[in-house]
């Protein structure tokens, strides 16, 4: 099997490990054209939480092998490697630094399940190193990163799949076709809901970095703040330095589906309000958040609701979407179920429940080196994550925002525009020129 030029890989690692400036590499063409019988070697980056599902998802596929696990916490890494050996009967390579993973010429693709603040940079570096990428939602931590990830995927001709698995659901794809075909008439509104059980996480405050955790590497491109169990490991979701709240966590599945079903991109007007009404804990992001995204030219609107605790369901939806049309409405529950109700009397219409395999779809595209096969290509990662970011920004500045979806800038609002990116910490810099 033909591999990339080792010198190019060494140059990448040297630059990314020691430079305090953005990476800039020559285009690396696809390493090879995969044959049907070629094994694809995958590295999983971030194995504390969602990464466990990535491991299982790829390991069940024919002629695909997880050959490397990567995590900056060597305690987690050791546990997961032991679990892997017991479950799959073989030893797996381990690395704490993703840059060393990218140097390995035998790894064909990386699956990114790190905290949000690492997603785009890890994906961009992977593209520059000639790897194909499966990246968890949200694909980006901010609007700027999402755009750079799209540019990197195209420049380096890499396959990049966004981890919104509902896009591979047979039922959900069928549902979208019904919307396109006019089953519920002209579709003018989408409502996304995220009603998840989010408990009080307490306040532990600053503490000592545990042995085995490379906290500098874990922090990566984020601001360096004192270590705390309040954010390492899972609860980083609720801190602005690393996460995006539940609209940017579970919610990205639903923001993606809202945009897909309405057939829209980024909006022109955003308003968002909410707050912390339940717990006096360490969370920074709002527990309750209500956001509206207006598309005046298309005469469409997205409503989005986040609730963390005791609540009703909406036509059985606790996590999912509702689409409203001139002739009926459609309810989508979770990742694999839809129902339709037609006319004023709510006559039950078509419905289905059927899943899919998002990992298999990614591998199919990798084998063919054809991004058109992907159900959730890199552009969808930027847009669905971007909608969540816009909602968060409107909440944080506390006012209605006007947005130019072509330039991807707020109109006449310097404070809001500053939140489209962040100041990066060397050498973990998302490059302006990929």
From TrEMBL:
Q: Which residues form a coiled coil?
A: none
Limits of the Gfo/Idh/MocA-like oxidoreductase bacterial type C-terminal domain: 205-257, 358-428
Gene Ontology molecular function, alphabetical: nucleotide binding
Going by the entry's taxonomy, the superkingdom of the source organism is recorded as Bacteria
> Can you give the residue ranges of the Gfo/Idh/MocA-like oxidoreductase N-terminal domain?
40-163
Q: Name one Pfam family in it.
A: GFO_IDH_MocA_C2
The name of this protein is Oxidoreductase
Q: Which species is this record about?
A: Flavilitoribacter nigricans (strain ATCC 23147 / DSM 23189 / NBRC 102662 / NCIMB 1420 / SS-2)
């Amino acid at each position: 099997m033909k591999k990339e030029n080792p010198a190019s890989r060494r140059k990448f690692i040297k630059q990314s490990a020691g430079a305090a400036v953005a990476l800039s590499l020559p285009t690396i063409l696809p390493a090879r054209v995969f044959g049907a019988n070629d094994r694809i070697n995958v590295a999983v980056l971030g194995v504390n939480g969602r990464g466990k599902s990535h491991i299982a998802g790829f390991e069940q596929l024919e002629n695909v092998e997880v050959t490397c696990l990567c995590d900056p916490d060597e305690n987690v890494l050791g546990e997961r490697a032991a679990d892997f050996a017991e479950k799959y009967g073989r030893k797996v390579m381990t690395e704490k630094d993703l840059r060393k993973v990218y140097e390995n010429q035998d790894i064909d693709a990386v699956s990114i399940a790190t905290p949000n603040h690492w997603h785009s940079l890890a994906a961009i570096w992977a593209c520059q190193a000639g790897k194909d990428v499966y990246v968890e939602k949200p694909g980006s931590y901010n609007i700027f990163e999402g755009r750079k990830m799209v540019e990197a995927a195209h420049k380096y001709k890499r396959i990049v799949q966004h981890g919104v698995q509902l896009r591979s659901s047979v039922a959900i794809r069928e549902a979208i076709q019904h919307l396109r075909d006019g089953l519920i008439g002209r579709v003018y509104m989408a409502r996304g809901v995220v009603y998840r059980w989010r408990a009080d996480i307490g306040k532990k405050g600053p503490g000592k970095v545990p042995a085995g955790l490379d906290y500098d590497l874990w922090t990566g491109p984020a601001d360096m703040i004192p270590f705390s169990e309040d954010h390492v490991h899972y609860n980083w979701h609720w801190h602005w330095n690393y996460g995006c709240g539940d609209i940017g966590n579970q919610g990205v599945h639903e923001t993606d589906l809202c945009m897909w079903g309405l057939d829209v991109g980024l909006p022109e007007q955003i308003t968002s309000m909410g707050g912390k009404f339940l717990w006096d804990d360490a969370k920074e992001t709002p527990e309750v958040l209500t956001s509206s995204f207006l598309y005046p030219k298309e005469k469409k609107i997205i409503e989005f609701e986040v609730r963390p605790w005791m609540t009703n369901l909406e036509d059985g939806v606790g996590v999912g979407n509702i689409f409203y049309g001139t002739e009926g409405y459609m309810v989508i529950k979770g990742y694999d179920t839809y129902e339709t109700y037609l006319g004023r009397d709510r006559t039950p219409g078509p419905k289905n429940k059927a899943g899919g395999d998002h990992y298999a779809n990614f591998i199919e595209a990798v084998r063919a080196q054809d991004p058109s096969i992907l159900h959730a290509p890199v552009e969808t990662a930027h847009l669905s994550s971007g909608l969540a970011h816009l909602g968060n920004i409107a909440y944080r500045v506390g006012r209605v925002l006007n947005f130019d979806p072509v330039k991807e800038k707020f109109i006449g609002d310097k404070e809001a525009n500053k939140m489209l990116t962040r100041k990066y910490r060397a050498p973990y810099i998302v490059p302006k020129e990929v």
